[in-house]
Amino acid sequence: MSTLLDSTSTNTVMLPVSGMKCASCSGRVERCLNDLPGISKASVNLAMAQVSVTGAVAVPDLMRAVERLGFRVPVTTETFRLEGMISEGDERRVEQILAAVVGVRAVTCDQASVTITYIPGTVTLEKLQQAIQPAGGRLVRIEDHREQVDVLEEEREREYRAIRNRLWPGAILVAATVVLVHWEMWGLGRILELSRTTNQWLQLLLIFPVQFWSGGLFHADALATARHGATNMHSLVSLGTFSAFIYSVCVLLVPDFFAVRGVVAEVYFETSGSIIVLILLGRFLEIRARGRTSMAIRSLMELAPKIARVAREGVEIDIPLGEVVVGDRVIVRPGEKIPVDGVVLQGSSAVDESMLTGESMPVLRGVGATVTGGTLNTTGSLTFEATRVGRETALARIVDMVGRAQGAKPPIARLADRIAAIFVPAVLGIAALTFCAWWFWGPEPALTYALLNFVSVLIIACPCALGLATPTSIMVGTGRGAEHGILVKGGDALETAHKVDVVVFDKTGTLTCGKPVVTDWTGDDGQLAMVAAAETGSEHPIAQAIVTLARGRKLALPRVDSFEAVAGFGVRATVDGKEVLVGTRGLMRREGMDCSAEEAALERLEQAGKTAMLVAVAGRMVGIIAVADVLKRESPAAVARLKALGLEVIMLTGDNARTARAIADEAGIERVVAEVLPEHKSGEIERLQGQGKTVAMVGDGINDAPALARADVGIALGTGTDVAMESAAMTLISGDPRGVAVAIELSRATMTNIRQNLFWAFAYNIILIPLAAGVWFPWFGILLSPVFAAMAMALSSVTVVTNALRLRRFKPLLV
């Protein structure tokens, strides 16, 4: 057996943590990890039960720090078949190699297999393969793989069952106790007469298992937390219920000591039991609701099939998805999901990419086209070469980005974190003051009043609602964004986007298609075929656009006898024995051609921002062909949506003013900043920010990266460059500019939801803690029963999570 002794490395680790119950718990973990040497930032997400740690990270040190606080880092164990270099005596070397992988906790190896215990989410099969391959080995999964989300789901399910198994027996026993409390009031004494003492002893017998078994989860956690010199929500519950329980036992054993003016004191066994059952019920409902907040990331993960069909050595075999390697020839039949990313080698099919991009229409993919893992092959069979597998696929990166976004903490959460850090000690102080005030100055029986109000204050305080207010909304919001094809990198972007008042679009590839297409041709198809044939010898994008149009019309291209590119003017070619000229006015004049009759049409096309060329065949002018980078069909709707949201829209481009103005008019944009060099784009963004504007920049190219990084919110198109996507805070997977408005609407909806949750969490505690302390009793005679306090406390967390789940119904504005 070999355990991990890995060296530190500067990176970011997502570590699952179980046992955190409230904001006080998450705050303790966050403060502890931030205090570790070499850690630059640690951020805990209570809703996801995980911590993101950035810095010089040694995973064993992180685990030990978490475990010293009384929490646990879940691990999973998986067995692999070992192939390759392993011979007798090599087992120790394999254990050492694999144990060096960051996140591996233990390795046991024999000649046939290796069993690895690791932290889910930090270790992947790809990392293990990279470690073992240099030594000549290979790992093959022999059982179903469990992702981090599966392990966390199991942890949640385990807690769910533990609470359920204690809730229902406890509820039955408390119900029976309530019957005993009201025995005489409900007339049951006429059926079976019970003395006061007998009735109270029966209450004790019924509540004893509720206090110690049903409430055991709270007491054990409170004790473990106390051992580390801290407190949490369960400390309040445990102290409150034990106070009521022990007081009641004392009243039962020595009633005369607590009697006031000859009146025997009451017992509060049903109060203790009811509090435990109601809080268990609240936790039960909360866990069920929180389970639904992670549905988006789970549905993304389930897009990829478990099995892939590959051709190896001429034989088609089905293998687990994790065993597909770069270069494999993958076969996908109609109706099957594409397992990994690749390039089509054979076949043609319509591929439904809606689950990733939100685009409803299937896209035709043929030889040379790229396909994405997780999408659905609908009509034909495809054979493609795997180019990205495992964690490198587009789907895996999307899942990772969504997971990181869900774990992010926006600035608005910091206030709640600061309050949560002192919340439980403050409540304990308020409860102690309440007890003393009622004991010294309260009416008789002063001790009873003091105890009940003390318990009410402890029970009604709810740090859970504070801790869940922000992360649950972020989880649901980012998940809903992913369903709409919007990937958010962090909580800062989601918060800032709702304040945007100016959206700046790059032109080429963002509002336009990014490549030239033929928009006008005044000749016939026969002449077009000759022009396309002449252009086949050129690699210029305009030439490719002309050839694409001819092939799209299924025209047969004639034989080309000769070809010459005339630099700066166009092309000259001999096609089927006839001279073909395609180019500018200058080319035609050089060849002695009169183009005065075409001048008006040329100017009209150029005014529209198009590149217009003259065509002559066999010494005669036959037509004009115009090419342009045309506007995406979605762009006008995208601009209209943003205007409907009250936003100013600007187009920023390096293109000439005339072309830019033509595109802007077509898109519906009034303000254009043209002829801006790439290095000056970020300066234009800064100038807008200097006017007090909150600016979103939308782009897709390398030249947009500085502006994307400079903007308050950078939004990149998924169809653009990796550099742009790295610089941006949000990515629109499909490249549809309408997603910009959806992203801003989603940000507004999420921030509204967070504010509602924070308002509820703060208002609940601010209003009800004084009520529980009896502040209003001298004027209005109002006191809050501990049972109602428990009911309110149980409902508070459920209310916050349920409100966050409303974001799942988010629908963008339609224009």
Description:
- Strands 18-30-29-28-19-26-27 form a seven-stranded mixed sheet, sandwiched between helices. A six-stranded antiparallel sheet has the order 10-9-11-17-12-15, with no helix packed on it.
- Helix 5 packs antiparallel against helix 10, helix 8 runs antiparallel to helix 10 and helix 15 runs parallel beside helix 30.
- Helices cover 49% and strands 20% of the residues.
Shape: elongated
Spans of 5+ residues with little confidence (pLDDT < 50)?
A: 1-9
Structural class of the helix and strand makeup?
A: alpha+beta
User: What about the largest sheet?
Assistant: 7 strands, mixed
As a percent range, the share of helical residues equals 40-55%
Separate helix tally:
30
Radius of gyration: 35 Å
Instruction: Tell me the β content.
Output: 15-25%
Write down how many β-strands occur, each being a DSSP E stretch of 2 or more residues.
30
User: N-to-C terminal Cα separation, in Å?
Assistant: 63 Å
Average pLDDT for all residues: 83
List the SSEs and their pairings.
Elements (H helix, E strand, L loop, with lengths): L1 E2 L5 E8 L6 H12 L4 E7 L4 E8 L1 H10 L7 E9 L6 H9 L4 E6 L3 E6 L6 H8 L4 E5 L6 H34 L14 H19 L1 H12 L5 H21 L1 H4 L10 H25 L1 H7 L5 E6 L2 E6 L8 E4 L8 E7 L1 E4 L1 H4 L5 E3 L4 E2 L4 E2 L4 E7 L5 H14 L5 H29 L4 H15 L2 H21 L2 E3 L2 H7 L4 E5 H5 L5 E5 L3 H11 L5 H12 L7 E7 L3 E6 L2 E6 L1 H6 L8 H9 L3 E7 L2 E9 L6 H10 L3 E5 L4 H11 L3 E3 L7 H10 L4 E5 L5 H6 L2 E5 L4 H6 L2 E3 L5 H36 L3 H4 L5 H20 L10
Parallel strand pairs: 19-26, 19-28, 26-27, 28-29, 29-30
Antiparallel strand pairs: 1-6, 2-4, 3-4, 5-7, 5-8, 6-7, 9-10, 9-11, 11-17, 12-15, 12-17, 13-14, 13-16, 18-30, 20-25, 21-22, 22-23, 23-24, 24-25
Helix pairs in contact: 1-14, 5-6, 5-10, 6-8, 6-10, 7-8, 8-10, 8-15, 10-30, 11-16, 13-16, 14-15, 14-16, 15-28, 15-30, 16-28, 16-30, 17-28, 19-20, 23-28, 28-30
